[in-house]
Input
Amino acid sequence: LEEDSLLRKKYNIHVSGSNVPTPLQSFAELNSRYRCELYLLNNFTELGFQEPTPIQRQAIPVLLSGRECFACAPTGSGKTLAFVCPMIMKLKHRLSTGIRAVILCPTRELAAQTTRECKRMAYGSKLCVLLMTKDLIRNADLSKRHCDVLVSTPLRLELAIRKKRIDLTRVEYLVLDECDKLFELGLLKQIDYVVKACSNPSIIRSLFSATLPDYVEDLARRSMHDAVRVIIGRKNT
Ligand code: ADP
Ligand code: MG
Output
């Protein structure tokens, strides 16, 4: 535990919550500690990622241990991998059909970008990653389609739920990405609607943000269970 706090100090990681898991020293620990499949480490190598960023060091073990998480780290610090990596490691065990994980992004551009990154990281696995598009809502009955990870804006997902095009009752992981932007854009009602539709009681929620204003922190404390808070550097810079 002394060792944990030295590591956190070194990488400017601040945590609160009970029994916070040890930060990662390297990506190799994903295999030695958590038995990840080798395709994942290969993908990181191919992408030129040599070592985890601070947010990845702490958020990945938190999510892999099945804890909910709300995290704040600066723009460009690798938050996408911090939630995608544990998600695809956990989804390996195919326990159910339907949509198994949802990532909400503030804009269509960010959703498209996150989908691309997600696919790059899942390359070599059999996981299916889908971007919610207008066509997808119009043409496909998503409840009959297998999809491991669905990436969407809150507006499009809300629309799909209202049109009964989609069933989110089996979702095991829900991520609110760029949470401060989701709020700035006034998407709280849509987020609430999606969160309610993801009714699986054992769902793991996480929230990632570049800043952690009080309203984001309030939402996290209100809606999450036994969550770990991870802050890299200072809270609102
Ligand atoms: P954020 O969401 O925190 O703004 P991103 O997840 O978009 O940041 O990542 C920013 C950039 O850093 C991306 O180009 C991503 O591919 C790259 N990146 C992510 N993790 C690593 C890593 N461990 N090493 C090097 N580059 C990384
Ligand atoms: Mg991001």
Summary: DSSP finds eleven helices and eight strands in the chain. The longest strand covers residues 99-104. Strands lie at 13-16, 69-72, 99-104, 129-131, 147-152, 173-176, 204-209, 228-232.
